[in-house]
Amino acid sequence: MRYWITSDTHFGHDKLKEYTERPDRFENIILHKHSSLIRDDDVLIHLGDFCIGKETYWHDKFMTRIKCKKWLVKGNHDKKSNTWYMSHGWDFVADSIGLRVFGLKIALSHIPMIDNGLFDVNVHGHFHNSDHRRHEPELVAIKTYKHKLVKLEHAYEPQLLRKIVGA
Question: Does residue 165 fall inside a structural domain?
């Protein structure tokens, strides 16, 4: 079993093409790359902002293609109840997740978390490959060497948690 991390897929959010220079039909690229890398016995942890609009359509499409266990850390655009997400295919839904793996205490969140000494690494999303969100001073101010950003725009594919944290 491997832990895969993805974030900010923003399925159906055409403005992301402008904000982050995503290609046309970026959703198909994301679905293809995720389904080709992730095995059925893996866990995919999505760090929030799954889609914008057409929630049922995008959830059905994603859940049909990705067969592993799927955990959702809700982001600022994930406005439905935890029950709604669970009934639409997620195996686990939370505002943040704490894992002890690879000899590390790992906090998984959508936005960077304040370093309160309870984690060794905070793996988060929210920022992209542009200055679209980098000027949120309250978030920029709390980032330290312990914060690891997962941005989908690097290759539109999930990343192994082991590699993100350097284990």
Answer: no
In a domain, 164, yes or no: no
Residue 166 lies in a domain: no
Tokens of 105: 């205490």
- For the chain, the residue count is 167
CB atoms within 10 A of CB 99: 18
Could you tell me if 7 and 127 are in contact, meaning their C-beta atoms sit under 8 angstroms apart? no
Q: Rounded to an integer, what is the distance from CA 50 to the centroid of its chain?
A: 8
The rounded distance, in Å, linking the Cα atoms of 107 and 118 is 8
* CATH code where residue 81 lies: 3.60.21.10
Bridge-partner residues for 5, per DSSP?
45, 159
Query: Helices (DSSP H) in the chain: which residue ranges?
Result: 15-20, 26-37, 55-65, 82-87, 137-140, 161-164
98 alpha-carbon distance from chain centroid? 15
Q: Are 98 and 120 in contact (CB under 8 A)?
A: no
CA angle (61 as vertex; 58, 67 as ends), nearest 5:
125
Confidence (pTM): 0.92
Question: Which single residue is written with the structure tokens 């039909």?
Answer: 25
pLDDT along the chain (167 residues), means of 10: 95 77 86 96 97 94 96 95 98 98 97 94 80 62 86 87 94
